[in-house]
């Protein structure tokens, strides 16, 4: 019977460690360089300045800069204006039937409102309108008057 002898040569992994270490360091710096390219060189203008007046919405008031509007608890507030245009808010009852809008410029659409009023605070005119889905105009008038009574100037 023939004996086969196998000789294993064991190479030290110590000679491979520096190569592996150099590759890891190179890969780390390559990734770091790529990530550094993602950071803008300067602050984008939209982060430094957002156009339009800032507003603050609390659980029962909106501060629109020039004026503050109170609204009934439980009602939703929807900001309808885009940045840089006069304030326009819609207050919506919990049952979605009543909509009362307050706007800092005249309405320019064909919506027929159940109630419309214009009020002047200092030098600012505000335009209010009330809309109802079911025709509950008495209920609408009560809330419309309440919101109108809770509009105050901030100057």
What is shown here, in short?
This protein is α+β, with helices and mostly antiparallel strands and 155 residues long.
Task: Walk me through the topology.
Elements: H1 17-38, H2 45-48, E1 56-57, E2 61-63, E3 67-70, E4 76-79, E5 88-92, E6 98-103, E7 115-121, E8 124-132, H3 137-149, E9 151-153
Antiparallel strand pairs: 1-2, 2-3, 3-9, 4-5, 5-6, 6-8, 7-8
Sketch the major β-sheet.
5 strands, antiparallel
Task: Label the structural class.
Answer: alpha+beta
Strand content: 25-35%
Global Rg? 33 Å
Give me the number of helical elements: 3
- Quick one: overall form? elongated
Compute the number of strand runs: 9
Order of helices and strands: HHEEEEEEEEHE
* Termini gap: 110 Å
Spatial strand arrangement across the major sheet:
4-5-6-8-7
- Mean pLDDT reading: 85
How would you sum up this structure, described in words?
This protein has a five-stranded antiparallel sheet with strand order 4-5-6-8-7, covered by helices on one side. It has a four-stranded antiparallel sheet with strand order 1-2-3-9. The protein has 155 residues and is of the alpha+beta class. The chain has helices at residues 17-38, 45-48, 137-149, and strands at 56-57, 61-63, 67-70, 76-79, 88-92, 98-103, 115-121, 124-132, 151-153. The protein is elongated and about 110 Å long. The chain contains three helices and nine strands; from the N terminus they run H-H-E-E-E-E-E-E-E-E-H-E. The longest helix is centred in the N-terminal third of the chain and has 22 residues, at 17-38. It has a domain at 53-153.
């Amino acid at each position: 019977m023939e004996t086969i002898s196998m000789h294993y040569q064991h190479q030290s992994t110590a000679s491979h460690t520096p190569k592996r270490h150099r590759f890891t360091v190179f890969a780390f710096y390559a990734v770091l360089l790529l990530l550094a390219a993602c950071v803008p060189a300067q602050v984008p203008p939209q982060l430094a300045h957002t156009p339009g007046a800032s507003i603050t919405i609390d659980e029962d008031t909106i501060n629109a800069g020039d004026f503050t509007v109170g609204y009934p608890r439980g009602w939703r507030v929807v900001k309808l204006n885009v940045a840089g245009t006069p304030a326009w808010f819609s207050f919506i009852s919990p049952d979605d039937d009543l909509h009362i809008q307050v706007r800092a410029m005249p309405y320019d659409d064909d919506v027929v409102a159940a109630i419309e009023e214009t009020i002047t605070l200092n030098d600012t005119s505000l335009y209010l309108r009330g809309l109802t889905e079911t025709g509950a105009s008495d209920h609408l008038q009560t809330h419309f008057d309440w919101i109108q009574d809770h509009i105050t100037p901030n100057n």
